[in-house]
Write a structure and sequence with these properties.
By secondary structure, the chain is mainly beta. The protein contains one helix and 35 strands. Strand 6 and strand 7 form a beta hairpin. The longest helix is centred in the first third of the chain and has 17 residues.
Length: 355
Amino acid sequence: MKRTDICFFSFVVVFAFLFPGCDGGNGNGTGEYSLTIDCAGNGSVSPGSGSFGEGMEVVLSVSPDTGWYFDAWGGDDAVDAVDNGDGTFSIIMDGDKHIVARFLEGIKYGLFITTSGQGSVEKDPSAYSYNPATVVDITPVPDSGWYFDSWNGDDAGSVSDEGGGIYSIVMDGNKQLEAVFGEYVQLTLSWTEMGTCSGTTDVDIAVDPEGAGEGLFEKNTEVTITITCGSHTTFDGWSGTNQDDVVALGENLFSIVMNEDKSISAMFGLVMFSLTISVSGEGYVEETSNCHNVYFGITGNDYVEDFTVLLKPQQLGEASFSGWEGTDAGDITDEGGGIYSIIMDADKSIEALFE
């Protein structure tokens, strides 16, 4: 019996000597949990076993011996060891934990990928380390509202673009990458279509590129805006918080650089023409149209392009209406019943004669 105890003690001493940082620990203090780390193979983990505060995040570094490589975590709580992408792992102490660092003999290379911004990277095949010359597909997966921007890090130049959002890298050594994600910027582009007597005039605003939809663009994208006015409509300029950022490229062609969230509004007006009516003699002219129902004497009014104005001469006293004169008298049509009409396709000037 005494002889067996001595052998067991010697085994524990040798085990601890061979695998520093992998010895077990209890740590059952108030508000603390025990983290027990064992090692299989030649290597170590830092920090080693011990007691840690409840909810604490413990960052673990694995160090394989020469000629060995870290393969995977084992043990009851292996799934709780989260790969940070930089060669370290994190485990949250929400209970007692037991994990085993498994080291295998041979040569493999680690692929360490960190992220900047909000997103993750999928590896195919998914592993911590790879045989030499293994080709690994790496796919950036941005979070909602974010996009993949670029690769950074010591080995960014070794990444090949395979298309379709997939990249690859050849494992001819340990590789360190950083996936950079950018947050979309928002272009709020608004406008009001102008109402006319026959309905709403059409206005079309096209942006290029279309971006990610709903006005979302990658940062620093130059967006081209093309404006097409419908009938009776004119473009009158820009308003809004970022109106000064809009650059004119040509007639109804503009651009804006999306280096931040921006808000602009396109302003439109109606094409209007003036009708000037003068009167000779004692009388006046009633003007009516789809847009107006007004009473005028010798004053005039503006009308929307191509609309028809109805004219009704009214005599005063003994005078009677005798006809039309003036620059545009030839454009007047007799509708019968003492009603005349004129189409407002330009500024018009007419004179009503009463005798």
